[in-house]
Amino acid sequence: MKPGRLLQIAVGLITLTNSLHATEPSDLLAGFEQAYLSVSASGNQCIELKVYLANTERQKGQGLMFVRKLSALEGMLFRYDQPSRITMWMKNTYVPLDMVFADATGTITGIANNTRPLSTQRITSPDDSIWVLEVNAGFSRKWRIKSGDKLQLERCPDRKPGPVRGS
Q1: What is the CATH class of 24-156?
Q2: pTM confidence score
Q3: pLDDT tens-digit series, residues 137-147
């Protein structure tokens, strides 16, 4: 084997190892825009999250792949231009997630709870949607989020110091 080829293989292995050991989303999602998203859930509570925005096709393809942990009030928001039945999967995704699907008005149309890490099983929205919010598994149950609740790409209206209102 030529010395140059051996160097290419070594660099490739180091890069792969570094991506597999990355634990913080900021390590892997540096090019993603960030925003605040509020979930208006039953019981008049507003849960505020910091989300990474998957805006481009490349970002949508990458999603949360190789991320090893998310904080409790952190997630990723995918937005599509046209309402459709959106299909997702968990390939190369190590964090178990809840996938929250919402229509063009931000109304939640369905939730895939506790998705299985690293699975290539397809997860499809129950109805036409344009948004998919990915959060830690158990988030929806903990905050009693259900179909009919609302997602808004803004901060909670009565925001006071602290990330969550109404809990």
Answers
A1: mainly beta
A2: 0.81
A3: 999 999 999 99
